[in-house]
Design brief:
Shape: globular
Number of domains: 2
Number of strands: 15
Strand order of the largest sheet: 14-13-12-11-7-10-9-8-15
Distance between the termini: 28 Å
Radius of gyration: 24 Å
Largest sheet: 9 strands, mixed
Number of helices: 17
Structural class: alpha/beta
CATH topology of the largest domain: Dihydrodipicolinate Reductase, domain 2
CATH class of the largest domain: Alpha Beta
CATH architecture of the largest domain: 2-Layer Sandwich
Bound molecules: NADP nicotinamide-adenine-dinucleotide phosphate
Helix content: 25-40%
Strand content: 15-25%
Length: 484
């Protein structure tokens, strides 16, 4: 199979926060890969912007070191890396002051697509948006890309939306949720809406329940200060898990177009029932022999912030009434894995008798590691000895099915940045979606603080607190194993 790389139009991409962690780990190495693949045109330019006083050459050295550190394999292509670095520039700009903006304006070229990536703290979003307009750096065709967290509740998300809307149209605002840029997430839509096979079964008549798991083995790391004011609910559920839930549950949009898709996602969020307190479990990881506890990590011995959350959600609409959605995410769990599992109902009657056991079809959609899908089907166990049934996977691992091309699949950030340049908002969150997600999340978080809810401790390397297992057991179901 030959991969098709369609070059995007020429652009000037300004990365505010170009010297920061996200830029160095994800954005800049990702842009280099797009350049090396031939997708980024020779006239494309990347302009780092931050307060640090640096020359272009110093910034280029920083970019080179970032690519070498975070993508050593791609960095071996030294010829392309050197050409890419020629496309990189730097301007010292203070988001909150007037210094540097004039110089940035002089560097930007007319008649090019202009994109401004806000890879800075959200408290700077409004100031940057305002100055882009004050200094006449952005027109109606310019795009801005904003990072998460997009607010910490409905009120702050609304305020952020308002401050961006003062200067930019919704069609210019790209709110990034990198989960939406993952290959499997888009494949989920391809599988659902490109095949006749699944959609007729995609409802409460045939689907027993759906599980969405995003498990990490790492703790809060160096992000303790931020994380302790956020927690798993704000950091993961309100955005990433919610987006996955929307894509799995939404009605088929009339076409694959940004607003058609986002309208359908919004309807899912609005159809979510409030979550009852007994349908949600919070946890905090305890210390192990080798690792510190959550409270030690965040240096807050009285922290009540959750590093784990599991919940049972219900969508009140015709398609999903009666099919629960179980969501869980946490840190310091058994394995690093992200999976959506669609668990189908049992066959209404087993012609093979009770001894054949209970067998269920499960469609497992893996986001990481090893992006791919597996459909569990029941077959006869080979060999003599009567009709014994066994579940086997019909496996579609991208790496195997697509061969070497699968390795060329761009990572989420690369794909999303190219979508910004192409002007395609399908995989970005719209303002009303983000607000609806907060409107659903806020009462849950407020309920915890009103009840002085204390998260349950759980062992590092486990599947979370026992209460999370009980959440499923009470319903006669069980979580899928957390494994890589
Ligand atoms: P970071 O490492 O702290 O970097 C912040 C960047 O902003 C630096 O380049 C800093 O450079 C610049 N900056 C700070 N104040 C500025 C000002 N007044 N004017 C202009 N530039 C300024 O943060 P980060 O981890 O890269 O995160 C950036 C954003 O992405 C945040 O919103 C974060 O929540 C989000 N995010 C990060 C990650 C991640 O993995 N890191 C993941 C998801 C989302 P100077 O100090 O030189 O100005």
């Amino acid at each position: 199979m030959v991969s098709r790389v369609i070059p995007v139009d020429s652009f000037d991409l300004v990365i505010f926060g170009g010297t920061g962690d996200l830029a160095r780990r994800k954005i800049l190495p990702g842009l280099f890969r797009r350049y090396a693949s031939g997708q980024m045109p020779d006239e494309g330019r990347i302009i780092g912007a931050a307060r640090s006083d640096m020359t272009c050459d110093e910034f280029r050295t920083m970019v080179k070191e970032a690519v070498e550190e975070f993508d050593p394999k791609s960095a071996k292509d030294t010829e392309n890396l050197s050409k890419f670095l020629d496309r990189v520039f730097y301007v010292a700009v203070d988001a909150k002051g007037d210094g540097g903006w004039k110089e940035l304006g002089e560097l930007l070229r007319p008649d090019m697509i202009r994109a401004f990536y806000f890879s800075v703290a959200p408290s700077l979003f409004g100031a940057i948006a305002e100055r882009l307009k004050t200094f006449d750096l952005a027109d109606d065709d310019s795009r801005i890309v904003v990072e998460k967290p997009f607010g910490k509740d409905l009120e702050t998300a609304r305020a952020l939306n308002r401050s961006l809307a003062e200067h930019f149209l919704e069609s210019q605002i790209y709110r990034i949720d990198h989960y939406l840029g993952k290959e499997t997430v888009q494949n989920l839509m391809a599988v659902r809406f490109g095949n006749m096979l699944f959609e007729p079964l995609w409802n409460s008549q045939y689907v027993d329940h759906i599980q969405i798991t995003v498990a990490e083995t790492v703790g809060v790391g160096g992000r303790g200060g931020y994380y302790d004011t956020s927690g798993a609910m704000r950091d993961m559920v309100q955005n990433h898990l919610m987006q996955l839930l929307c894509l799995i549950a939404m009605e088929p949009p009339a076409k694959f177009d940004p607003d058609a898709v986002r309208d359908e996602k919004l309807k899912v969020i609005r159809a979510l029932d409030p979550v009852e307190p007994h349908h949600i479990v919070r946890g905090q990881y305890a210390a192990s022999d080798k690792t510190a506890s959550y409270r030690e990590d965040v240096e807050n011995p009285r922290s009540f912030t959750e590093s784990f959350v599991a919940m049972r959600c219900a969508i009140s609409n015709w398609r999903w009434a009666g099919t629960p959605f179980y969501l869980r995410t946490g840190k310091r769990l058994k394995a690093r894995t992200s999976e959506i599992a669609v668990v189908f109902k049992d066959a209404p009657h087993s012609i093979f008798g009770a001894e054949a056991g209970v067998h269920r079809n499960v469609l497992s959609i893996r986001l990481q590691p090893n992006e791919g899908m597996t459909l569990g089907v029941t077959i006869k166990e080979p060999g003599p000895g009567g009709m014994r049934l066994v579940d086997v996977p019909l496996d579609m691992s991208f790496a195997e099915a697509l061969g070497p091309d699968a390795e060329e699949v761009p990572d989420a950030y690369e794909r999303l940045i190219m979508d910004v340049i192409r002007g395609n908002q399908t995989l970005f969150m719209r303002g009303d979606e983000v607000e609806a997600a907060w409107a659903w999340t806020d009462p849950i978080i407020n309920g915890w603080s009103n009840r002085n809810d204390v998260p349950k401790p759980y062992d590092t390397g486990s599947a979370g607190p026992d209460d999370a297992l009980m959440l499923m057991h009470r319903d006669g179901r069980r979580w899928r194993e957390i494994k890589e």
